[in-house]
Amino acid sequence: MATQQQFIEFLSEIEPSPSTTQVCSAAHRTLRGKLAAHPTYKAIHRETYLSGSYARDTALRPRVSDGTLRRPDVDIIVVANHTQYDQPSDVISMLRRAVKQSGYEEIESNRRSICVTLGSVDMDVVPVIANPWQPGGWLIADKSDERWLETNPMGHNDWARAVNKRANGNFKPLVKLVKWWRRENLPHLKRPKGFIIETMVAELMDYRENSYEELFAKLLDRISTEYQWLAATGQVPHLADPSVEGNNVFSRVKPEDFKRFYDLAADHAQRVRRAQREPDPDKALVQWQRVFGDRFRKPTPKSGGLLRTAAAASGGMGLAFPAKAVVPPNKPPGFA
């Protein structure tokens, strides 16, 4: 079996590095400041905030693809003073024009956002407006269908914090383990990923468990048992969006893609249990590396002392990080 220390060190390995978080923080703060100060767009601009995995503290270190380090993604929500009567394509075009006039050159218009590409980071900038039919609700522009759709990115941020608190701080580390496992073994699978993974983990995890090894093992067990019939009959799960009523987070997952995901989970559920039963640490490590890859290593020899100093990750908003934080020995850096 693996030790808690191995998982703590592994989580430190797969989290974004301090330099990555600094680059992302500088990039999004600069862009948000320019939008707020734009000569004409500032009249439309109400506020901005972060969404996505960086805001929810579930991001992984950027991956290497074909020998090239891929840029990290940061999602920026722009709350604008448009109304539901404005054409979504016009709203996205107006945002793109303001960003272009702010000095950015590589800008791509997507269905519901614009993507701003810098040398070291990609930023998805997403305009939203207040939902006039639902107090506290939000609408996102879809330029392909020229309609406004319900959304709630801030609700997702709040939901993730609440789930992590309920799980005694173990939800976010478990999400990172599952995301890395999926990336390592199914790198080209389009879905499920991202927020779908987070919702599934929240649905199936053991909220009383504190061992990272057992949390991961139990989650794979639950996937293999809960979704066996769906995978066998060519169906996908239905998981309610925690912040948008009536939305199924699995709605865009193809049955064949889910079957590949399920088959891997079922196979590795057995492999993980074999690794746990293996008395030889070196042989157990081989099994774990087949699950997580070679970044999962032997534990570093202890150097004494009950507390260690580590870089602390943001609670979500702003990607601004304190210089140092003292982290208990049962938590990885970023989970103080």
TrEMBL record:
Signal peptide: none annotated. The keyword Nucleotide-binding does not apply. Keywords: Antiviral defense. SUPFAM superfamilies: Nucleotidyltransferase. The keyword Magnesium does not apply. GO terms for biological process: defense response to virus. One of its GO terms (molecular function) is nucleotidyltransferase activity. It comes from the Bacteria. This is Nucleotidyltransferase.
